[in-house]
């Protein structure tokens, strides 16, 4: 059999489907498709972007991933650089030094995931404070720090932020950050090459060990065993351990009891689902970072419509900005709705207000007529607020329309209800569960 090494250009072409798959049609069309192969500059793949804006955006957001994908097919270190296409814009034909070349642990840290870029709100306040404490304090604060929460709520961002901050405040500390998946991969490899001593040395000689997405080793017994010993060895030497997962230690599936119990020894901090305020704050921060002025109305619209997770929220904003930039038009509510039609349709479950009122009343054992009545007793007022909240989230009705449907109430009453419910959700687990359940029954 004969193997030929593909040129960087061919490799670039061959990772396109993967990029399309990972980032989705919208992002791909806006940012990646406009790039073209420029040259192979001493092993550095140089791509040409149509504008400086696209160049910067791609560098900050996708270049790392591109490099990782290309690395798979190459023995030597691959660099990716992006330049502005000189045929379109001559004076901008400057090659910016690659931002991807961060030494040691920095190499697997995302440049954007810093504390400065993390927007703090009620749902992530505790996790953020704990993360800062661990990163900045002189001694071991809590061991381990265990961060958990749903997909796309900022766990990895906080982990990277801790690592960056330690690098800054305590540059001498040896930090290892890796996903549980990588940990397992390295462990299995060490076993195969009979190199477990080096493996153990490597992990047991660090000052800070950070493992992301630890749920991954659920059911992987020997990896858990090794992790458990590493964990104990480090704790014994008073070294800091920081873990993230999608569930609390006690809820982790396929995890040994003794490990679960150990993981819960230090500080367990959960990140709650985002509230409207936090989503708005994040959107404002992102728009500002990108140096684009987006009308407040558009941000409010996105914050109320895209409530699933921060990753989707960011994706939506990026698309809106990309579209406006590429077609050279201002961002308005209309263009936003247009650009995000498919995404909004997916979020638009076509639930009616009547259904919501009926289901919520049923759930809380009150009468449907109480949804319209002026009664303010807590027993009916709270379910009514929940119903208003769900209407805001699940339908495209405006606040005044919702008010009218709830016994002719004012739109400020509806807004108050929405905020109230979000506050309660951040504080009480039961209400989160109620809403989750209701949402699910309504959506199916
Ligand atoms: P997780 O690891 O919990 O699945 P990530 O940390 O990867 O989620 O976050 C997904 C995206 O959302 C990232 O781009 C991250 O920067 C962004 N993000 C999440 N929470 C925040 C926040 N509070 N402020 C700013 N960006 C956030
Ligand atoms: Mg993550």
Descriptive notes:
- This protein has 444 residues and is of the alpha/beta class.
- It folds into four domains: 5-88, GMP Synthetase, Chain A, domain 3 (2-Layer Sandwich); 102-271, 3-Layer(aba) Sandwich (Rossmann fold), CATH 3.40.50.300; 276-349, Helicase, Ruva Protein, domain 3; 353-443, Orthogonal Bundle (Chromosomal Replication Initiator Protein Dnaa, Chain: A), CATH 1.10.1750.10.
- Helix content is 54%, strand content 10%.
- It contains 20 helices and eight strands.
- The protein has helices at 8-14, 16-32, 52-61, 63-71, 125-136, 155-169, 180-192, 196-204, 221-236, 257-263, 276-289, 296-305, 310-327, 333-339, 341-347, 353-363, 378-394, 399-405, 411-427, 429-443; strands at 36-41, 44-49, 79-84, 145-149, 175-179, 208-212, 240-245, 267-271.
- The chain is globular, with a radius of gyration of 25 Å.
Bound molecules: adenosine-5'-diphosphate, magnesium ion
What is the N-to-C succession of helices and strands? Answer: HHEEHHEHEHEHHEHEHEHHHHHHHHHH
Please give the CATH class of the largest domain. Answer: Alpha Beta
Number of helices: 20
CATH-derived architecture of the largest domain: 3-Layer(aba) Sandwich
The CATH superfamily title of the largest domain? P-loop containing nucleotide triphosphate hydrolases
Ends apart, CA distance between termini? 53 Å
pLDDT < 50 stretches: 88-104
Tally of strands: 8
Class of secondary structure makeup: alpha/beta
**Order of strands, widest sheet:** 5-6-7-4-8
* CATH domain topology of the largest domain: Rossmann fold
Query: What proportion of the residues is helical, as a percent range?
Result: 40-55%
Q: In what range is the share of β-strand residues?
A: 5-15%
Biggest β-sheet description: 5 strands, parallel
Shape: globular
What's the average pLDDT?
87
């Amino acid at each position: 059999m004969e193997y030929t090494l593909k040129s960087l250009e061919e490799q670039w072409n061959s990772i396109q489907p993967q990029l399309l798959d990972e980032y989705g049609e919208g992002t791909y069309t806006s940012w990646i498709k406009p790039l073209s192969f420029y040259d192979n500059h001493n092993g550095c793949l140089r791509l040409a972007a149509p504008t400086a804006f696209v160049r910067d955006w791609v560098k900050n957001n996708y270049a790392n991933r591109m490099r990782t994908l290309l690395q798979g097919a190459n023995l030597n270190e691959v660099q990716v650089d992006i330049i502005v296409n000189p045929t379109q814009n001559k004076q901008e034909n400057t090659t910016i030094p690659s931002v991807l070349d961060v030494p040691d642990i920095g190499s697997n840290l995302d440049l954007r995931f810093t504390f400065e870029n993390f927007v703090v709100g009620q749902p992530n306040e505790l996790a953020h404070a704990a993360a800062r404490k661990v990163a900045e304090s002189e001694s071991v604060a809590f061991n381990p720090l265990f961060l958990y929460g749903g997909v796309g709520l900022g766990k990895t961002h906080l982990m990277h932020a801790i690592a960056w901050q330690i690098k800054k405040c305590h540059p001498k500390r040896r930090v290892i950050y890796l996903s549980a998946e990588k940990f397992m991969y390295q462990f299995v490899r060490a076993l195969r090459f009979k190199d477990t001593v080096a493996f153990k040395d490597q992990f047991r000689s660090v000052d800070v060990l950070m493992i992301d997405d630890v749920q991954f080793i659920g059911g992987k017994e020997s990896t858990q065993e090794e992790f458990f010993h590493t964990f104990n060895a480090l704790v014994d030497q008073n070294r800091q351990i920081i873990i993230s997962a999608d569930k609390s230690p006690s809820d982790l599936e396929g995890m040994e009891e003794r490990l679960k119990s150990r993981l819960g020894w230090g500080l367990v901090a959960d990140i709650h689902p985002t509230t409207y305020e936090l989503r708005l704050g994040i959107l404002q921060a992102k728009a500002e970072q990108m140096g684009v002025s987006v009308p407040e109305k558009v941000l409010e619209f996105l914050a109320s419509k895209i409530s699933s997770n921060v990753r989707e929220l960011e994706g939506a904003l990026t698309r809106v900005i990309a579209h406006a930039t590429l077609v050279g038009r201002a961002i308005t509510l209309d263009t936003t709705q247009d650009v995000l039609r498919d995404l909004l349709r997916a979020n638009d479950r076509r639930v009616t207000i009547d259904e919501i009122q009926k289901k919520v009343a049923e759930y809380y054992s009150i009468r449907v007529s109480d949804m319209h009545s002026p009664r303010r007793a807590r027993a009916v007022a709270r379910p009514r607020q929940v119903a208003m909240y769900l209407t805001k989230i699940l339908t495209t009705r405006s606040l005044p329309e919702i008010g009218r449907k709830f016994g002719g109430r004012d739109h400020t009453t509806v807004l108050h209800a929405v905020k109230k419910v979000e506050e309660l959700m951040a504080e009480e687990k039961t209400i989160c569960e109620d809403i989750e359940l209701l949402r699910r029954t309504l959506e199916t």
